[in-house]
Amino acid sequence: MDGNGPPLAMAGKPCSFHTSYPFVNHPGAPGPWFNQAGSLNTTKNITFPSRDPSHFGEDVKARVAEYFQSRGLSEKANAAMRLKTVILFGITFGAYGLMLTNQVPLWGMLGLAILMGMGIAGLGFSVAHDALHGAYSNTAWVNRLLGFTFDICGANGYMWKITHNVIHHTYTNIEGIDEDLSVSPILRLSPSAPLRPMHRFQHLYAFLAYSTSTLFWVFVKDYKYFLQRDLGPYKNKKHPRSEVAILLVTKVLYYTWSLVIPLLVLNVTWWQFAIGYLAMHLTAGLILGVVFQLAHVVEGTEFPAPDAAGTMESAWLIHEMRTTADFGRNNALLNWYVGGLNFQVEHHLFPRTCSVHYPAISPIVEQVARECGVPYHAAPTFRAAVRSHLMTLRRLGPQALAAA
User: pTM of the entire structure?
Assistant: First the structure.
């Protein structure tokens, strides 16, 4: 499968399934990587073993490759995916244009703002995510162009490729390096994260915290990461000046279309606009935050840690199977809207395969996993996955505090 390998390889860094990945851990729980104060002990390498006794990696790649080859199918976007792209752009910016006509009553404008939030989340799931993984097209400039959907919507695609494509996809659910586990100090998302009294209530306020994620993203997160010296496996990371320029230009573009133009054009007060703007972001943030958490922070998924020498227990592909979960695989609407992100197992194994194909290859991956004795985590429905996530938050929060 072309390009469907360890994420660092996709980032242009030589690696194989047994490559050592240099990194500097972030402060977390005491252990071989941290001292009792939670301070970094040293710089080490994480190594994924090369040997996979189950031969799962070889078998699953061969079987999925055979699926595409026997049907003469491309792994990239098909006509259905391209149509979905047009629909999502139409929903998002059609709602925006309709609001700017000043022909819609206030309650209608609020509804359109919520619809925009849903559209922005959908564009992130279905268009930008695939494009930034190189999964949308075999043509690099097409992926580059569609990847700018992220930037247009206020997030930085370059930084996303570092924190998501490289760090998260390589070090999934490894505390202190997977940035998805450290979204906020008010949330404890892994057993080795610091335990604080506030976590007693995290299952009650987690979804509210998720809803603020895109607001934090477009106004704080990208700048923070660009200024941060150490980021995941990168120590004293230097960013190209061209990417800094793109960050600043696209942020101005986003602030212009989302803030300046509406404030100049709409016949509303500033506080009415603020309500609509918050509604858009809270909707997008809630959807994005919940869907991404349901893939890794649920019952059954694991949070492996390296030993004192920095060696992981499992080969990289097995590590991904232990730490990742699918959900709601038979929900056609969910499959369409979230861009296959409810098929996270398949996405982590084949990140450069377009998400439109994940429902078809999911039974293949599950069958090979069963034959090889490898875990395959999947919640039957979206509701079951949400319930599982809440149970996990309770286990990591109030139950952990009660046992401390």
Answer: 0.88
